[in-house]
Amino acid sequence: MTRSGATHERFPGSTVCAVLMAVAAVTFWLASFIHFGATFSIGSTRVSDPFPGAAIPEAIVGVVVALGALGLFARWRLSWRLAVGTTAFAIIVTLYGLSVTLGGGRSADVAYHVSVLAVLFVVLATLMAGHRGRPRTL
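The structure corresponding to this sequence follows.
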């Protein structure tokens, strides 16, 4: 691998992290869509949960996490750092969102936050473990 070359080796777990980050980004966008007021049915269950205060932050977190996933997929030179930073950002914002929903009796929102946090923590742990011992480059 060269510093100026276009191809960079993947670290162990980078593809798994990229896929999990892409899935998380899509779920943030779906949550945003629902919180903007979209209503749809899944079988006999109607999904509707307007909550405008969460819609824009969820959309932004989705974009940020997608950018981290794209960096891993594309093997950008600083992809590992970007992925760690975007995942950490998503964890912090999601923890805040969880703190808001815990007191409001919104059990589906609490379940979503806990689930996406679990995925984000797995991504962060995999990123940290996969990059351990590799030489640091700028």
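The beta strands are 39-42, 45-48.
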